[in-house]
Every structure is written in C-alpha cells, then in structure tokens.
Specification:
The chain has 255 residues and is mainly alpha-helical. It has a single domain, classed as Heme Oxygenase, Chain A, CATH 1.20.910. Helix content is 65%, strand content 0%. α5 runs antiparallel to α9. The radius of gyration is 17 Å and the shape is globular. The termini are far apart.
Length: 255
C-alpha cells in the first residue's frame, strides 16, 4: 500500500521534495499515537482535515461545472472522476456512529470524535457556522493549514492538487495509525472511519477503480506538473507542521 504517482510526476525535479515530505509524515512520531494527548490531537486534527477535504472537493466540482478546468483534464472527465469521489466519500452513507444516523466523511469523523469524548465545537463553528478563522483559538500550525486549504478552493488546479495528494498518500498513513489505535470501545468509530478510507483509496478488489487508481490516471494526463507539485509540497509542509503540533502541544484546539 505504498503511495504511488504517475511516471511523469516522479520524473519531475520537484518530486523528490514532495517524496521527502511524504516519508517524513509516514515516519512521524504522531502516527504512533504514543500518548493519550497525541491520540486526541490526531483525532481532532482529522476532523479539521476531513472538513478541508470536503470543501476542496466541492470547490473542484464547482470549477469543473463552470468549465474552469485546465491542465489536460476536460470538464466532463473531471466531473466523472469528482462525482465518483463525492458519491463515495461524501454521500455514501457507510459510516454509522452510535445512535446517530449513518453519515459520510467529515460528519463521520466529527461524530466519531464526539463518541470518544472529544470536543468538536470549534470545527463545527468553522465548517458549519462559517465562523471566521481569525476569531477561533486554534494552534497556529492548524490555522495556517486551514487558511491555505481555503485558498486552494479558488481554482480547479489548486483544489484538485490537494485532493489527489490526499487520495494517493493518506490511506498508507491511516494504516499506520490503525496499528496503534487503542482497542478501547470509545475509539471504535474512529477505527471504522480510518478503515473505510483505506478501503476506498486502496481496495485491491477494485482494480482501476480505487481512488488512488483514479488519481494516478488523472494526474498522468495533466500538464504543468510544476504548479501542481508546488501546491502539494506547500500543503504537506503545513500538514507536517500540524503533526508536529499534535506531538508537542497539550491541545491543538486549546480545549
């Protein structure tokens, strides 16, 4: 389940920098969930990460519908690909958390975090109530990540770059987290969330149809790889900083 990129990307001079970041994240201490504090920070971070993913996916779809697609993908091809992601990540009611109705993606990890006793008020304020980021007390590293993610909604290329990077690499990291996630019942729904992501992104039974396969296909036909890689590198630099905060801070949400 090692992350892979199409050959044209791997040959680009900037790819080695991205590869270093991917490896740094995969080998990060945060993935081992060594303390209860790190574990709670990582789940809280996942709530915000999932909300950012949803926003960028909706943004990429909106740009494709407006025919604002470039870099080698036609609007129709982009919509087919993005609709599949949206149907399975955002609208496929696969997750069930306690007494709550089955819910997708961002809502799933939010409810899973609540089931584990975590406070998700600030994530709800930011994503659902549209409270300005500047008025929320969050760790500076998390704020920088959220700000850049919001910036990436501005065009198809920037939003799609973050989506492709997540789909190609995160399931591999989730398998590492799953190895260290406590067996206590309160974390059961968090486990379901990560397992479902691994299934969607790297399901070996869905040859050519897993989300990682779709991203490899899409990226292999895209142009201006330097622009895409620059976005991916910046995005993972900021994500790596959030993982640093998960290890070093008593709480990334200051709860």
């Amino acid at each position: 389940m090692n992350p892979s990129f199409p050959l044209n990307f791997r040959r680009h001079p900037s790819f080695s920098e991205l590869e270093k970041l991917i490896n740094a994240i995969s080998n990060h201490r945060a993935m081992r969930l060594e303390t209860p504090t790190i574990l709670e920070n990582m789940v809280n971070a996942s709530v915000f990460f999932a909300g950012c993913f949803a926003r960028n996916l909706f943004a990429a779809e909106a740009h494709a519908r407006l025919k604002q697609v470039s870099n080698g993908l036609t609007p129709d091809n982009a919509l087919v690909l993005l609709n599949k992601l949206a149907n399975e990540e955002l609208f496929d009611l696969t997750f069930k958390t306690g007494s709550v109705l089955p819910v997708p993606h961002y809502f799933a990890i939010k409810y899973a975090a609540k089931e584990a006793g975590l406070n998700v008020t600030k994530a709800r304020k930011y994503f659902e109530q549209k409270v300005p980021l500047g008025s929320l007390r969050l760790h500076p590293a998390l704020k920088k990540y959220l700000k850049f993610s919001a910036y990436c909604t501005g065009s198809f290329v920037t939003s799609f770059s973050t989506i492709a990077l997540r789909e190609l690499t995160l399931a591999f990291n989730f398998t590492l987290i799953l190895k260290h996630l406590p067996k206590a019942k309160k974390w059961d729904f968090v486990r379901v969330f990560f397992e479902r992501h691994c299934q969607l992104d790297f399901d070996e039974r869905a040859v050519g149809q897993s989300h990682s396969d779709l991203m490899i296909f899409a990226l292999s036909g895209m142009k201006n790889m330097g622009e895409i890689l620059a976005i991916m590198i910046k995005f993972y630099e900021l994500r790596l900083a959030v993982y640093d905060a998960c290890v070093e801070s008593p709480s990334i949400t200051f709860e």
